Amino acid sequence: MNRSRAKFRRSRIGGLCWFLGVVLFLDSYWWVMANHVIRNFWDPPYGMKIDRLRVDVAKYPGHPLWIVMGSSRLMQ
Question: How far is CA 23 from CA 16, 18, 26, 45, 49, in A?
Fold first, then answer.
């Protein structure tokens, strides 16, 4: 009886370790994909605006950058 309890505990601990490992892997995979690979997938207008901003900053190096926030009436 003692042997079966030890085997049961080992299998539970092993299963828990595998579960936590898979959860950590999937969480890190999701974080990398969402923040680095397909960043524009979640918000395409933001992606287009940030790309346009990067082009403008590269076109005019050394010029100050002004970002205006706070009104829905502002256009690019």
Answer: 10, 9, 5, 31, 34
Please check whether residue 40 is in contact with residue 46, taking contact to mean a CB–CB distance below 8 angstroms: yes
Closest CA to 55 of 65, 44, 69: 65
Query: For the segment 19-73, what is each residue's pLDDT rounded down to a tens digit?
Result: 999 999 999 999 988 888 777 777 788 888 888 989 989 998 888 888 777 766 6
pTM of the model: 0.51
Both structure tokens of 22: 């898979």
| Structure tokens that stand for 8 in this block | 């049961």
